[in-house]
Amino acid sequence: MKQKGRELLRKVAHVLIGTGCLAGAWLVSNFYGAYALELALAGVLAALVLADILIADYGWKLPLYHNLQRKHEIEGLHTATLGFVSSVIAYKLFALPIAIAAIAMLIYGDAAAAIVGILTASGRKKSSFWRVLAMLAVSVAIGWFVFGWIGVVMGIAATLAECLTKKIDDAITIPVLAGIVGQLLAHFFL
Fold first, then answer.
1. Which CA distances in Å does 150 have to 10, 99, 105, 137?
2. What string of DSSP letters covers 46-110?
3. Above 90 in pLDDT, residue 68?
4. CB–CB of 102/158 below 8 Å?
5. DSSP 134-155
6. Least packed by Cβ within 10 Å: which of 74, 89, 121, 146?
């Protein structure tokens, strides 16, 4: 599969799996409670870390991972694992609306930026105008819908976390930085 096709497929999987995780978390939380959600999060995290160990240390080729992984993920943690870790951090540290907005910015804003990058031939250059604009538009819209003006500022922080990081995976930086900004603003202004 060509690189552009693989990246596009990665981002489609990113959105579908992320949406499924949000929906699943909501269902578990509403039907079984917060403790059950925390157990489910721990179980998923354990499975992701185990998959990364099997791939990196033992050379396993797991079906979904193998077809969608980048070279640097073969010998370390996958972006999916890092995104899940940052989502758990957001869930545990921030108020629920802030955590939801921050996680949604990772799922949808990052995917929009990457897809626009693929379609405009700017590729993986994170600071290209159209990628930044896509990330900003989607993240600000999510922020406004979930948390009003504070969410808008979170969207700006998520965009900065996306386009200014070069070596640190944005699956960690987007929800954590957007969440910190949202939590601080909520603390001082609400």
1. 30, 12, 14, 15
2. HHHHHHHHHHHHH----HHHHHH--GGGTTS--HHHHHHHHHHHHHHHS-HHHHHHHHHIIIIIH
3. no
4. yes
5. HHHHHHHHHHHHHHHHHHHHHH
6. 121
Radius of gyration of the chain from its Cα atoms, rounded to whole angstroms: 16
Q: Which amino acid is at 66?
A: H
* pTM of the full structure: 0.90
How far apart are alpha carbons 84 and 134 in whole angstroms?
A: 23
d(CA 65, CA 80): 9
Instruction: Tell me the CB-side half-sphere exposure of residue 63, using CA atoms within 13 A.
Output: 0
Q: Of 13, 11, 14, 17, which Cα lies nearest the Cα of 114?
A: 11
Reference 104, options 148, 52, 140, 153; nearest CA is 140
Q: What is the pLDDT of residue 128?
A: 85
* pLDDT of amino acid 56: 87
| CB 160 within 8 Å of CB 135 | no
Asked if residue 102 lies in contact with residue 94, where contact means CB atoms within 8 angstroms, the answer is yes
